[in-house]
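Problem: given the chain below (427 residues), write out its structure.
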Amino acid sequence: MDGPNMMTCAICLEYFKDPSTIPCGHNFCLACINLHWDRQSKQGTSLDCPKCKQDFPSKPQLCRNMDLKELVEGVGSSGLYNAEVVAARADGGSDAPRDRPPCHRHGKPVVFFCNRDKMAVCCECVVKECAQHDKSMLEEERQNQEMILQKKEKDIERLIAETEKSLEDLSENIDQAKVNLQQTSSWVSTKFSSFIKSLVQKQEATERFMEEQSHSTMADAQSRHSQLEERVQRLQENQEQIQALRGLSDTQLIQESRFVKVPQFQDVSTEVNPGLQERLSAVTDVLTRVSKLLHEDLERAVGTALADRQGSPQDKRPILAVVPSPAAPFVPGLREGLDTYRCALTFDPCTANANLSLSHGNTRVEHLTSGPRLLPPDEARFDHTWQVMCSQGFQQGVHYWEMDVSKPWAFVGVRHIMVQSLFRFRK
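Solution.
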C-alpha cells in the first residue's frame, strides 16, 4: 500500500482527522466511522468494517491512533500528501470521487450531506459546523434523490398520458359537437324554411279561395241586382200604361183597364253573405293558435335562449307588455256613448304568475325572459299559465275599459265568479 492510501480514510478519502483503529485493525476518521455505524444502526443492519466487511456484534469502543495522527500531521505539513492525492485524482484513480466542487468552507472534498443545511459538506464540516446535524453519505443521498426523481418522472409521464388522453377526448368531443351543431342548425333552418313555405302556400291557397268566393258572391249579387232593375223597368212600363189609360174616354178606359195586370214576381233576396267566416272558421282558429305559438311561445323560447347566451340584464328585455290604460285620450266618433261606462282597472298582484312583473301602480304587466320571480304562495295565483287577473269585478251593468298592447296581439279573458276556467278571445 502506498503512502497516500496508508494515511487516507477509506470513507472520506481525506487524510485522517482523529484517526481511530477498530477491532479488525483498519483505521478511519473518528467522525467517519461513527457516522457509518450510526447509518447502519438506523437501517437495522449489522455494524461492519467499511473495508474488510467484518461484522461486530456491538458498537466497538474506539481509541485514537495517536501514532498515525502524528504521522499524518507531519506529512500534511510538508505538503507531500496533498500533491500526491491531487496527482492520483488527475490520473482518474479508483479512489477519486465524482467530479464534485470542493467544500467552499475548507476547500476539501465533500463526502457527506447535511440534511439540515441541505448541502454537501466535507469531513471538517462534519466535525465542526455540522457536528450536531443529521447527516448521510453523499452517495447515499444521491441514490435517494435519484429514486425520488424517478418517482417524479413516472408521475410526470402519467400526467402526460392523462393530459394527452384528455386532449384526444376533447378533440373527439369538439368534432362531435360540430356535427351536432351542424345537424341542429340544419334541422332548425329546414323547419323554419318548411314552415314559411307551408304558410306561404296556405296563404296563397286561402287567398285564391277567398277571391273565388268573392267573385262568386259578387256575380250572384250582381245577377239579382240586374233582375231587380229589370223588374223596376217593367213595373214602370205598367205604371205608364195605367197613366195613359186615364186620358181615354170612359168607354175605352173601361174596356182597356180589364187588360191591365199587376205582374207577380218571386222574392229576390237582398242579403249578400259570402259565408267566408263560417267556411274559414277552422282556418282562423288554427291561425289564432299559430299566432300564439309564434308571438308568445316561440318568442319566449328564443328570448330565453338569447338571454342565457348573453347573460346581460339589458338583454333580458320584456317580449310582451300589456298596458291597460283607463285614462286613454278620447277619440271622437269611436267611443260615443261608451265614456259613460268607463272604469279604471288594476291588476291583482296576488294572481300574477311568477313570470309576470307588475308596475306603474299595478296598471302595467310585463312578460319577462329572466325567469320566474320568487313570490309568496297564494291560492289565487296562476301557477302554470302566464296570466293575471284584475282586482275589480262586476256583478251587473255595462262596463267599458281600454288597454294598450306593445305587440300586435294579446289574449284578454273574462271569468265568471263561479267558473274557474278562463274563457279567452283574441284582441
